[in-house]
Write a structure and sequence with these properties.
With 153 residues, this protein is an alpha+beta fold. It has one domain: Gcn5-related N-acetyltransferase (GNAT) (Aminopeptidase, 3-Layer(aba) Sandwich). The protein is built from 3 helices and 7 strands, in the order αβββαβαβββ.
């Protein structure tokens, strides 16, 4: 999934399996430490892997820190079937009900309209006052500017 250029078009680069493994390890550490993280999304009918969704604490270098972010990434074969919205909405519900969070943000590059559509469908509100230039991207990078959405309990 991370090696698919279409899936990764709103990220700085595609990732090989070897490049993806540290992200998986960081996520597992987050789950072990926090009790939540990014969860695998599977189709109920046949357990086909579709991608991931969930919640992550924001890193200290993120302009929205401290806070919790909702995130998702689905394989191309799973697009357009409502899986991202269903799974992301379940993540928000878990964050508010089980974890007791008061606010959850989501952010993406300004050009990532599909993710922004998911944010709208799951009831998040646009927060233009929180938009930022992503600190991990160099100045002038086409994906540098990020838009922010928020859901509140």
């Amino acid at each position: 999934m991370n090696a698919d250029p279409e899936v990764m078009r709103f990220f700085p680069a595609v990732q090989s399996r070897e490049e993806s493994e540290p992200m998986l390890a960081r996520n597992q550490d987050h789950i072990d430490r926090e009790g939540f993280g990014l969860w695998a999304v599977e189709r109920r009918a046949d357990a086909t892997f579709l991608g991931f969704t969930g919640l992550m604490r924001l890193k200290p270098d993120n302009p929205l820190h401290p806070g919790v972010e909702a995130g998702w990434r689905l394989a191309r074969h799973a697009w357009g079937q409502g899986y991202a919205s269903e799974a992301a909405a379940a993540s928000l519900k878990d964050g508010f009900e089980r974890l007791g969070l008061k606010s959850i943000v989501a952010f993406t590059a300004t050009t990532n309209l599909p993710s922004q559509a998911v944010m709208t469908r799951i009831g998040m509100s646009r927060r233009e006052d929180l938009d930022f230039d992503h600190p991990a991207l160099p100045e002038g990078h086409p994906l540098e500017r990020h838009v922010v959405w928020e859901a509140k309990a």
